[in-house]
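## Example record

The block below lists the input lines for one assembly entry, exactly as stored, with component labels intact.
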Amino acid sequence: MANSEAVATPGVLLTADGTPLKVSLQKSLRRSKLRAMLLVLPPLLFLVFLFVLPIGNMLLRSIDDSLVNQVLPTTFKEFKAWDKTTDPPESLYAAFYTDITRTLEEDKLLVGKAGVRMNYDKPGWRSLIKISARKFKKVEGPPYKEAMIEIDKRWGEKEWWLSLGAMKDERTLGYFLNAVDKKYDFDKNIISVDENRKVYNLLWYRTLLVSFIVTIACLVLAYPVSYLLATLPMRFSNLLMICVLMPFWTSLLVRIVAWMIMLQQQGVVNDTLVGLGILDTENRLAMMYNFNGTVIVMTQILLPFMILPIYSVMKTIPPSFMRAAQNLGATPTLAFLRVYMPQTIPGVGAGCILVFIVAIGYYITPELVGGKDGRLIGNMVAYHMQRTLNWGLAAAMGTILLAAILILYWAYDKIVGVDNMKMG
Amino acid sequence: MALPVYTTLGQRIWHYSYLAFCTFVLFFLVAPLVAVIPLSFTSAPFLNFTPEMLSLDPEGFSTRWYKGLFGICDQDANLSTMCTDRWVVGTQNSFIIAIASTLLATFLGTLAALGLSSENMPFRRGIMALMISPLIVPLIITASGMFFFFAKVNLVASYAGIILAHTMLGIPFVVITVTSTLVGFDKSLTRSGASLGGSPAYCFYKIQMPLIAPGMISGALFAFITSFDEIVIILFIGGPEQHTLPRQMWSGIRQEISPTILAAATILVILSVLLLTTLELLRRRSERIRGITPH
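Predicted structure tokens for the full assembly:
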């Protein structure tokens, strides 16, 4: 430090090469910041391009309704001009005819896809479009109204034309409404779907119920075991810890197969109960392929997620606290409730949120052991993705699910902090 | 946990019922997995314990399902299920995919953890939360999103697509485990290395790398097992070529459930015990070299 320049400007500390210390420090800070950012950049880009953007893109499908607009642009223009009280005018028929014939020339598949989409709003559209598209070739010029009614008499009914009102916008919240058993009527008012078509509200309710029951069951089972693990001497607790971690490390499908053996009608549990004379062989318990199956198997699968956070919190509580409380006159129960339990709350909170988050999005387990009344919303997303190809609805359900999970994840971050997460 | 002599009868009853409850929970966790093992040696094509097995009659046991698993065909006429090499093929594919995605995930995850553990990193918390999010977002949503994206870039039904997707799932584990080995890392170690003339790269390999190695390995093990066991993404974006072990088990469970699947399950249970032991040994090693003694 004591070189000639330092003497020249008193009060400013200089480094060995003569730059002021402040500048030099800032430079090195900037360099270390840059290095950290360069390290994080490749994995971050990887994650953004292969995870964040694809999921965001998928979620946008939930409000995208441009398909019908691509096929029927002029029809919708004419539709807006129509006053809806009179019968649909010839110009509307003509617009529809030109739209369909034009699209058939450009892209045949698009007509079929639009028909599928229109079918969501009013069942029957798909067949109507299909029949019409086939026979439109034979129509020779205007007037189109009579020609179309001849092809299919539904074209004469006003309600089919009115139903276009629910599809005319490029952006729609219709899929979100469908996901909670509501829909748009022809004037874009929100109404409930018919009683016998309601499925999703029940599924949302069941998903929440299952996640809730599983979380509570895990908590009840995990708390005492975590206490045992935390208070036993190291060599015993390590051995018991293997019991906790072994299922954690075993393949999910293996665990499901194992539970099938345990819980089926002729399974180990039923056989044992019958063998012990507790149960008649006719009254074997139905524990598989229903609601119970989903709950039992999910509880076992998620139990380690509850035990580990609670255990790691309990491990940090000195046993002397309990002894001190009892020394001061508290009964063991009171000491436990007033001294020990409040300190375990962070672990309990972390475990509960973690189990709930994982449970709410479960798909494989309910699919394999849930039967008909044990399916959750995740199964419905998969069903619409793979079977009905109603991707808008799948995306809407996915968006609602993801929003719920992100709120919980945010809460988890607030309570424990994601960087405090530990594994095994 | 011997009780002191002065405990009352009530306390004793409470204590023993507590222990019984804990035994029940641990039993609940492990029993199904243990039940699989003897049942995989059944000689009958059913998924329950036959009377011969319960009376320990050697006739009741056989290794035919293991032979089936390895594609060794018995000439035994009453073998009910078809002899297939799908299990072996599936295992090979699973290993290829899991190893490739583990290597990638370990590399990317370690980079992220190194950057994120520097306190000069801006938006540290947010980026950390993002890095861990593949673990939190339901697989069904991840798989759906990737399905559309991979369809656009022609990666559906390709090994590359599956490997990239599995890499994504593995990164959070590596980030978490490596970050936790970097907690309490003494910066003056690398500084003194540098002051003694080591280049940054040399200092990293000689000083930091051995310290974070246990975290990298345990993160890699998590990433490996996640990929090896992954089924949802395979179902969504895998083609018939990408026939993996979980996929074979999936079709086994859904279509022709036979004790072959129990033989496979037994092998996987044993594999998981081996992995668990490795991990435990690594953890102890990590604590020892970082100077943290187990409490």
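Chain B is about 70% helix and 0% strand. Chain B touches chain A through 95 residues (CB under 8 Å).
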